[in-house]
Amino acid sequence: MTTTPASSPDIIDTLTGITRGDVLDAARARRPEARTHAQGSFAALFQPVSDAEVSLPERAAVALFVARLHGQTAAVAFYGALLRETGGGAGLEPLIVAEAERAAGSGPYGAFRAENVGESVPGPEYSVDSVEAAYALGDRLAAALEHAHMLVLHPRDADRDRLQHLLDAGWSTTGIVTLSQLVAFLAFQLRVIHGLTALRAAEGAEVPEADSDGIAALAATVARDAESRLAAESGAGAAPASLATEQLPPAPRVTEPPRFTQESLGWKPWLEPLPVSEFTERHYTALVERERVHMPYFRVLARDPEALLERTLTDLDIFFNTDAGLPRSDREIAAAAASRYNGCVFCASVHTRFATEQGADRAEVQRLLDEGVTARISPRWNAIFDATVALTSTPAVFDAEHVAALRGIGLDELELLDVIQAGSFFNWANRLMLSLGEPTV
Predict the structure, then answer these.
(1) Tally of domains in the chain
(2) Is residue 242 part of a domain?
(3) How far from each other are the two terminal CA atoms of the chain, in whole angstroms?
(4) Does a structural domain hold residue 3?
(5) Sign of dihedral through CA atoms 100, 105, 107, 110?
């Protein structure tokens, strides 16, 4: 399966200002697969093997909108330049920025369910409501921005009907998977950039101002490589989207979990998983483990196999690389804290269970589920909870105070990187789980 285009610089390093030989370069080098495949995820989504389902300008436009919702100046400049380079048109960039400014908020918002309903946080929902904007964006892009806003600021408010809205606007099932992967990946990428930038600033390193010429050159390189990849891989991607409006499969029958739990839960998709009969070796490669073909979640994500492969390999290195760094139980508790704050009952169940299996005290883990991220358990976990919540907030508010607290419990650069990447990754995972299906007992 095709990997990252060779000439594209590492986006996280570039937008963070990490240079060869500095302390964070050394830390990232200890998580080489996470570094390689985070960049590979960017390539899979912004330099794809096929743009039949989601065009390059659509990808860049959604990314610009998401970057602005996160308040990241360098990322806004980069994705704006990428939109121009991919042919978004002179008027589209300022329109996207204006819509994002109108849609901005401080999340995560949304309704908790069952026994946790008292934790719900209402917040404004975004829709393209001016005639001028709706005409300029078109049905597809307008629906994509509304979906992106929901994923970024209202992740736990996702529901099945919103996916039908995308289908009605001209998106295909496969296109929705790619769109959701793109927004969820950005929720990870932008948080890693924020976290590492805050870490550099807290350590007294100079954080350079965004270099407009350098960012423009980077966007031009990415766009050029995207076009080259499309030309080289023509015929390798998905078939063009059908003009016929697709319909969702019947709603799954579920029993809603009444509370956050360490017990094993099921998950049922709202979109049609890719049929096993349509799997090729390309799709099996993307699964990493072939037996995942029996799991509906992975069969849904296998509709964009390159994005699934790179995401999975990023995940494995962040959580399973045992070359020093944060103990596995602490990485899992960061994942669980992000999931508890975002309201992902399924992810929280998986990763609190993993934390317990890795030696964490079961009763203390249960307190996180019962009391939420404000639970005070130990100085170590309190610092990890607070740092993860600060990163999971949109826009992120992780800063020198959180770095100092993590330093205060004895963490070094590699352990700090593990906290940042573990918490950030579950902002990716939660948004896919919450928006593409639902948990069941």
Answers:
(1) 2
(2) no
(3) 36
(4) no
(5) negative
In a domain, 301, yes or no: yes
The token pair at 63 is 């990314």
Q: Do 222 and 320 share a domain, yes or no?
A: no
Please, what sign has the CA dihedral across residues 137, 45, 429, 74?
Answer: negative
Tens digit of pLDDT per residue, the chain (441 long)?
545 565 679 999 999 999 999 999 999 999 999 999 999 999 999 999 999 999 999 999 999 999 999 999 999 999 999 999 999 888 999 999 999 999 999 999 999 999 999 999 999 999 999 999 999 999 999 999 999 999 999 999 999 999 999 999 999 999 999 999 999 999 999 999 999 999 999 887 766 666 788 899 999 999 999 999 999 887 544 444 455 689 999 999 999 999 999 999 999 999 999 999 999 999 999 999 999 999 999 999 999 999 999 999 999 999 999 999 999 999 999 999 999 999 999 999 999 999 999 999 999 999 999 999 999 999 999 999 999 999 999 999 999 999 999 999 999 999 999 999 999 999 999 999 999 999 999
Looking at the fold, whether 329 and 208 belong to one and the same domain comes out as no
Q: Are 21 and 201 in contact (CB under 8 A)?
A: no
Instruction: Decide which of 186, 208, 232 is a domain's last residue.
Output: 232
Q: Residue 31 sits in a domain of what CATH number? A: 1.20.1290.10
Is pTM, for the whole model, over 0.90?
Answer: yes
Residues 285 and 197 in one domain: no
Q: Which domain holds residue 397?
A: 266-440
- Residue showing tokens 């999340």: 107
